[in-house]
Amino acid sequence: MRPTLVLCGPMGSGKSAVGRRAATALGVAIHDTDAMIEERAGRTIAEIFAADGEPAFREIERDVVVEALGTTAGVLALGGGAVLHPDTRRALAGYRADGGVVVFLDVSARQALLRIGTDQRRPMLHGDGESPRQRWNRIAAERRAVYEEVASHVVTTDRGTPAAVARRILALLPDA
Ligand SMILES: Nc1ncnc2c1ncn2[C@@H]1O[C@H](COP(=O)(O)OP(=O)(O)OP(=O)(O)O)[C@@H](O)[C@H]1O
Ligand SMILES: O=C(O)C1=C[C@@H](O)[C@@H](O)[C@H](O)C1
Ligand SMILES: [Mg+2]
Questions:
Q1: What is the distance between the alpha carbons of residues 134 and 130, in angstroms, rounded to a whole number?
Q2: Centroid of ligand 3 to alpha carbon of 110 (angstroms)
Q3: Would you say residue 47 has pLDDT above 80?
Q4: Pocket test for ligand 2, best of 15, 118, 122 (most atoms within 8 A of CB)
Q5: Which of 6, 8, 29, 83 holds its CA 20 to 30 A away from the CA of 148?
């Protein structure tokens, strides 16, 4: 079993929101790896970061994402930093080699920050010495090449509702 579609991209690009609309339109399930991690850990992502730190979170995330790529159908929305783990990148390359579709949802800093603001549920946005805007910009710049490497398609989400962005993505799928 494998997902019909995998979404990656930075915080606020719309992976969860667009993923839900795409899944509804296709009549399939949506799986969001952030929600799967919280369910497995019995804690929120913010709680995991606060208690155990980012490296511990990335290990749980690697386990959940690699497993989900082999065991779920439907749409799989990844956490923003899931592509950082080399095991996850290898699993995504295997999924694509097998015909899977990975879409990088690109977004401008301006739109992303308008959407997510200073949301406390996103621990990567908060840290010493940098504003959420500075952190978002730095992280997005650091990750851009990795998103491009893992993706088969890039879709910009600045314009259009989540449903409209979902329709653009569905047009990329084989047999759509
Ligand atoms: N195309 C869009 N137009 C307007 N609002 C949007 C769009 N896409 C997403 N949003 C809104 O922006 C917010 C963030 O979107 P979402 O949670 O889907 O981002 P994400 O990529 O999953 O972020 P994270 O990596 O933090 O999980 C949500 O409130 C969502 O409804
Ligand atoms: O971009 C990131 O590193 C993150 C994005 C979210 O989806 C969550 O996975 C978590 O808040 C970390
Ligand atoms: Mg999300």
A1: 6
A2: 18
A3: yes
A4: 122
A5: 29
Whether residue 80 has its Cβ less than 6 Å from ligand 2: yes
Q: Token digits for 174?
A: 């084989």
Among 65, 116, 124, 143, say which to mutate for ligand 2: greatest number of ligand atoms within 8 Å of CB.
Answer: 124
Mean pLDDT of 90-106: 97
**ipTM given for this complex:** 0.96
Residue 176 pLDDT level (bands cut at 50, 70, 90): low
Q: And the tokens for 115?
A: 């959407």
> Ligand 1 site: residues with CB under 6 angstroms?
9, 11-18, 34, 79-80, 115-116, 122, 157, 160-162, 165
CATH number for the region 5-170 comes to 3.40.50.300
